[in-house]
Amino acid sequence: MFLTDLLFPKFCLGCGYIGVYLCDSCQNKLKPIEQDVCLYCKKPSFFGLTHPNCYNKLNIDGLLTLYYYNPMLKIIIKNIKYRLTSEVWQEFCRIIKPDVIEKLGFYKKLSPDFIIQPVPLTKNKYNERGFNQAKIISLFFQKFINYPIVNLLVRKKGVLSQAQIGSLKKRRENVRGVFQVANKKYFNNKKVILIDDIVTTGSTVKEAAKILKEAGAKKVYVLALAKG
Fold this sequence. Notes:
Elements: H1 3-7, H2 24-27, E1 62-68, H3 71-82, H4 86-95, H5 98-101, H6 105-110, E2 114-118, H7 123-129, H8 133-145, E3 153-155, H9 168-175, E4 179-181, E5 191-199, H10 203-214, E6 219-227
Helix pairs in contact: 3-4
C-alpha cells in the first residue's frame, strides 16, 4: 500500500467503503443504455440515428450514449466536474465494461473520416476548472474510435447552468447564440462527432450542431457519456 493511501485513503463515492472510489456494489448501480432513441421523438432508433421524419438539415444526425444519468453516475460526474477529482475519472474508465464500449464501433462502420469536437467551455470556466470534461471524455473515446480531435468550436459567453432551468423553451433560449466556429472553412463537408458528458433535453448539443452545420459540416453526431 502506498503512503498516500494511508494518509489520504479513498472512500467509495456511493457508500463510503474504504479503498476505492467505486466499490463493486456501487459499480453495479451504473445502468448502461438498453435502447438508444431518436433525440427528437424519443422513440427507439438504431444506434440513436435521427428518424427521417424528425430530421431537417440543421439537426443532429444521431445521438449515442453509454449510461443512464442515474444518482450514482450523477455523483461520479459531479466529483469529476466540480471537485476536480481526476482519479475518480481514471477509476471510472477502468470499470466501463467492454460490451458498453462496443457500440462505439458503429461510428467506424459508418465512416472512416470523422473528426471529434468536444463541446467547449467558456474561457473563464476553463480557467476556473483547469480542464474541459468533454475534452477528457473525448480522449477516452478516441482510444476506441481513433479519430482526430479538434478544438475549433468556441463558446462565446457564459450562461446559466442548463440543470438550473426547468423549461425546455428557456433551455433553448439560454444557449441560443453561445457558440461560434474559429475556422468556418475547416468544417466544410466534414463529418463531426460532437462529444459532451451529459445530454438531457439536448438543447446545448442541438445549438452546437446547428452552428457546425451552418459552417458547412455534412453530418453531426453526438456521443455522450450519459443520457438524462
